[in-house]
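BUG-302 | component: ligand-complex export | severity: low

The export step for aspartic acid jobs runs without errors, but we want the raw record kept on the ticket for reference. Input record follows.
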Amino acid sequence: MPTLILHGGAGRIDDARTDAYERGLAAALVAGWEVLERDGAAVDAVVAAVASMEADPSAFNAGVGSSLTRDGTVECDACLMDGRDGRAGAVALVTRSASPIRLARVVLERTPHVLLAGRGADALEDHPVDPGALVTPYARAQLERWRARHAESTGSAAEPTGSATVGAVALDDAGALAAATSTGGVIGQWPGRIGDAPIPGAGTYADRSVAVSCTGKGEAFLRAVTSKALAERLAAGAALEDALARALADVNAMGGSGGLIALLADGRLAWAFDTSHMALAWRSEGAEHVSVAAEPGVTVRP
Ligand code: ASP
């Protein structure tokens, strides 16, 4: 039975922006579900869903509308992983892509590599845009607010903040899983900083049993190797609820917070977050849900 679950980031989501998130999630759910409904592959569905959110600057931090570095530039990260064979394609620090997840797919399909960063990744973009076209007035205003808050701080004290990263995991009719994550990173990040999203096993992971996409403080997810650790615990027999709670605890222990979505080959879908909100949407045969969730914790749907 096909299933699709999406996130639009974990963090604080203002009431005034809830509608924009829900509209964007609903559109992405349609885009991904259209693929699954016509017996398309999970890998195509997650790309379609994530690309839909990347193209929507009204809520999300990916592609157009990405968060800005402390220099005011956009540097995007994205990863696509196919659970059928463990193949992955990822990009980091890309500056000319309206859809970094599609560029990650180009890396997967047309290169012998897994992750390309910066100049080499930008050169693969078939439809390059002017880097300024990815910068929105909202992202500029957020950076200004961040700068004002950190005017007195220097070095590591000027802690970048994130949210509104996008991700999707899907199970197709043939029983295959896939995961995709795309982000502009965190507001005020140092130029050249790469988060967890483009790193298979950290922010994004899929194998034959489980697919995962994470959001939150990337440094903590990188250090906890969150998505691969979750897969390994499940493979060792842990209950899904416990494995998710442990994933969040490990991220906390590494100094971070955030959330993740997971989908099992048996169709169980789940999410967990410890921030005030997480933007979530899912669909399976006969049931559909879109919301900005405000009940932190672990949720599993049979
Ligand atoms: N995990 C992303 C990063 O660290 C940010 C986020 O999900 O809010 O780049």
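Assignee comment: Attached the raw record above. The helical segments are 18-37, 42-54, 100-110, 119-122, 137-149, 218-224, 226-235, 240-253.
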